[in-house]
Specification:
By secondary structure, this protein is mainly alpha-helical. The protein has eleven helices and no strands. Helix 4 runs parallel beside helix 8 and helix 5 packs antiparallel against helix 11. The radius of gyration is 19 Å and the shape is globular. The two termini are 32 Å apart.
């Protein structure tokens, strides 16, 4: 039986119109979230209002409120949307981020991909008022990342308590820290990415040559 895609829609129910409605609703929701992501990337999180999203997506404001309930609900949905796309990339996408590359190469690609939208992620966490503790470290999104990093560290032959080591590795990519490094210390994304690569290689060993 083929594996169900991470973002897949449920199988149609024979003899009903519900599947089409569900598929349309899911597709429209994804279009709204893609438009919201672009707004945040282009103009910052403060520009993401229900009015602006409705205008960008070409729908009525009531549609946006029905989908997300409030601006805070929209922020949370957008965080979840971004997280799922990222998860799909490292679980099922092409190497080196996805399967098929040596583990250290995959760890390096994991960090560089995470940095691409780090400002969006950090601003969304702030706007959605998600705490630094509590659910952030016990919830499914963080623990999926941690399990993935732990697996790659194990495959690379890293030494130590892997759960603790995975937490330490992920802390280097923490959005508030990276945003401080960029906005206050003046480092650019490439410098931070290079530092991530060097850090990973010190912990897990040098990258295997590309075959």
């Amino acid at each position: 039986m083929p594996e169900r895609p991470l973002l897949g829609i449920g199988a149609p129910l024979p003899g009903t119109s519900e599947p089409t409605e569900r598929a349309d609703a899911a597709r429209n929701r994804q279009l709204l979230l893609d438009a919201a992501h672009l707004l945040v990337r282009e103009h910052g999180v403060d520009a993401l209002t229900m009015d602006e999203l409705a205008k960008r997506a070409g729908v009525g404001k009531g549609t946006v409120f029905r989908r997300f309930g409030s601006r805070s609900g929209l922020m949370r949905a957008l965080l979840d949307h971004s997280e799922r796309k990222y998860q799909a990339a490292f679980m099922f996408g092409p190497p080196p981020l996805g399967p098929g590359a040596p583990p250290v190469q995959r760890l390096v690609a994991f960090g560089r991909a995470r940095l691409l939208d780090i400002e969006v992620e950090g601003e969304l966490h702030r706007a959605a008022e998600i705490s630094e503790a509590g659910d952030r470290y016990t919830g499914a999104p963080y623990n999926l990342l941690k399990a993935h990093v732990s697996m790659l560290l194990r495959e690379a032959g890293a030494v130590g308590e892997l759960p603790l080591l995975a937490d330490t590795v992920l802390a280097v990519l923490d959005a508030p820290l990276v945003m401080y490094q960029m906005r206050v210390l003046g480092y650019d994304r490439e410098q931070i990415g290079d530092n991530w690569a060097a850090f990973v290689e010190r912990i897990a060993g040098p990258r295997s040559p590309v075959e």
